[in-house]
Amino acid sequence: MENKTFTISVYSENNVGLLNRISGIFLKRHINILSLNVSESEIENVSRFIIVVNTTEKWVHNIVGQIEKQIEVIKAFYHIDEETIFLENALFKIESSLLFDEKQIQNIIKESHSEIVTVSRDFFVISKSGQRAEIESLYEKLKPFGIMQFVRSGRISVSKSKMEISSLLEELKQ
Amino acid sequence: MKISGAEAVIRCLLAEGVDLIYGYPGGAIMPVYDELYKFKDDLHHVLVRHEQGATHAAQGYARATGKVGVAIATSGPGATNLVTGIADAQIDSTPMVCITGQVGKHLLGSDAFQETDIIGISTPVTKWNYQITEASEIPEIIAKAFYIAKSGRPGPVLIDITKNAQFDEMEFSYAKCTSIRSYNPKPVLNIDKVKEAAEIINTAKKPFIIFGQGVILSEAEAELKALVEKSGIPAAWTILGLSAMPTDHPLNVGMVGMHGNYGPNVLTNECDVLIALGMRFDDRVTGNLATYAKQAKVIHFEIDPAEVDKNVKTDVAVLADLKESLTALLPLIENNTHESWHNTFKEKYEQELEAVINEELQPMKDGISMGETIEMINKHSKGDAIMVSDVGQHQMFTCRYAKFNSTKSNVTSGGLGTMGFALPAAIGAKMGMPNREVVAIIGDGGFQMTIQELGTIFQTKVPVKIVVLNNEFLGMVRQWQQLFFDKRYASTEMINPNFIAIAEGYYIKAKKVTKREDLDAAVAEMMASKESYFLEVMVEKENNVFPMIPTGASVSDIRLS
């Protein structure tokens, strides 16, 4: 069975130690987590983990089963890229003088649909949301001018189809 | 009424019906021990000699009674010493609650004396764990701990309680936990799946049942027996399923797995329908998965959704508590006898009898065999004893040859294979079932891993019978070295102490048998003893356990020699 990129979504209680318990399941199988994002979900006090891994479908099936059986996990799913809408966020910190000295930077910002979130005397910060390739292409374009700091978030995603969990979550909402 | 957190811990245990716990005191758990002193008439605490012994004793208690075993220890090394037993309980689905003391909340994370992150350490080997830092949390969390440990697929839970939470006062009230919104212990039975399963079973020509510990955990022994008798389907056990059905039942065809019986293993690859009841297709059962039961339709009755399709792809999965699913299945099953199919099992058994079993149970060699010792115990126990085995060759001989009339009678470390398990587990089993005979079967290696628990036996006067099968080797590893490493016996030879003197040092009656003619009388004396008894049997040094499926081989390639 070939390896593929899978996005695992986990709905869980918001409890201390659960991240450790979930990441341990990947550790046990010697799988590297490519990206991890944890946030509040659409339900109060319910967290949503988005975990990206590269593995076989058989293993992701087993892993999701083992995640879901953890006491504080409400439900877990996995999807391939085609089944989700996903993006990442990146911040680029660049020296302010370049904004005026290198006019090209303004074009790059415009063409990449990124935005300047802050400008100070010494530096300005560009924010870019999108798929990995778009962020990487922006990075390559800005690199020659010198990037002071770069950071990219984990993947966030929503499924295209309705999650089986919706009705369960409705109950939890009440 | 305001009481201390420590007193609340005791009151919670009493509310859960606990009357016996195993443990070892220390600094961070002293407030709870102080309350144990006050409550000693209601809650009996057994002082073990090492915290690992507390977990195995709690496991032995849980496995023999079906109730939750409880172990208690202090922070730091007390807590880390519990880990082996917790891991064992996790992989063997044993309900256990462990309580550990922890340094005060203000010291957490500061590398304080005897501080260890037991929550972090125990996370991968617990069904659930939780650190209590406020006294007011105690009742709700302990109630959850017992509910989680016992419900669904059981397992170990660890509750870590900081010292301040034990000292602080709180308003006490207790309510049992009956549900947790993120936890679904019993999947709702889908009756269509049961019908689908019944149809396949009824039209099968060569169906085969493998039953595991799920039968015992859901107390579905009567349903299993009824199913087997009505359908006439040959049934084999996994090591943890052993004793769920009487061993001499005519439809019980033996054990599957690495050292299981010849027929059940070979015929796994000839059956047309494989019915797995409360078992998880462990690699020691399946051998090479690529060649495992490929010809068969697989029906998996299972409570844990994570086990379905984990190792073996199923055609029909019936997700539910086994007692419930078998009860629904029974009326749909047609009467049958599968006579010629049974005859195939009988033929295979004859082959095994000739190649392996006869020589093991009535050896021509001078040296005593492990198998004949087990057979001698059968003669005197009449199959009524609880047998607690350790890990290694003697364990395989026990599981292959011991007779059992009733359920919850085979206590052994299956999934984790923990040497040192049996002696403390036997203590727990005997305390849980005081009216039954409990015999621990241990090798000379494993015995020395938890030998200090002889002290617990002496102090509590618990009348367990201890049999050490001494071959002066770590026998199972030696067998592998002989078969797969050209007899390079690296560090498997044991130069042993005088075990009789050690047992007698603990004032335990002891006897050593070196000759076959003395075995019968010695076993008789042991079984008749009202007190604990230590029997050392010097067995043939280089005997092997057969049949055997070499690691990675197919069940069809099981070796008879």
Automatic annotation (TrEMBL), chain A:
What UniProt keywords apply to this chain's record, in alphabetical order?
Amino-acid biosynthesis, Branched-chain amino acid biosynthesis, Transferase
Pfam families tied to this protein: ACT_AHAS_ss, ALS_ss_C
* Presence of keyword Membrane: no
**ACT domain residues:** 7-81
Fetch the SUPFAM superfamilies from UniProt: ACT-like
Q: In which pathway does it act?
A: Amino-acid biosynthesis; L-valine biosynthesis; L-valine from pyruvate: step 1/4; Amino-acid biosynthesis; L-isoleucine biosynthesis; L-isoleucine from 2-oxobutanoate: step 1/4
Instruction: Output the InterPro entries linked to this UniProt entry.
Output: Acetalactate_synth_ssu, Acetolactate_synth/TF_NikR_C, Acetolactate_synth_ssu_C, ACT-like_dom_sf, ACT_dom, AHAS_ACT, AHAS_small-like_ACT
Biological process terms in GO annotation: isoleucine biosynthetic process; L-valine biosynthetic process
Q: What is its EC number?
A: 2.2.1.6
Q: Which reaction does it catalyse?
A: 2 pyruvate + H(+) = (2S)-2-acetolactate + CO2
Q: Give the GO molecular function terms.
A: acetolactate synthase activity; acetolactate synthase regulator activity
| PROSITE patterns (UniProt xref) | ACT (PS51671)
- A GO cellular-component term linked to this record: cytosol
Subunit structure comment from the entry: Dimer of large and small chains.
Which function does this protein serve?
Answer: Catalyzes the conversion of 2 pyruvate molecules into acetolactate in the first common step of the biosynthetic pathway of the branched-amino acids such as leucine, isoleucine, and valine.
Q: Which family does it belong to?
A: Belongs to the acetolactate synthase small subunit family.
Q: Cross-referenced NCBIfam families, in alphabetical order?
A: acolac_sm
Record protein name field: Acetolactate synthase small subunit
Q: What is the originating organism of this protein?
A: Flavobacterium glaciei
UniProtKB/TrEMBL annotation, chain B:
- GO annotations of cellular component type: acetolactate synthase complex
Domain named Thiamine pyrophosphate enzyme central is located at 194-329
Task: Specify the protein name.
Answer: Acetolactate synthase
Write the record's keywords in alphabetical order, separated by commas: Amino-acid biosynthesis, Branched-chain amino acid biosynthesis, Magnesium, Metal-binding, Thiamine pyrophosphate, Transferase
Write down the EC number.
2.2.1.6
The entry sums up its family as follows:
Belongs to the TPP enzyme family.
Organism of this sequence: Flavobacterium glaciei
| Enzymatic reactions | 2 pyruvate + H(+) = (2S)-2-acetolactate + CO2
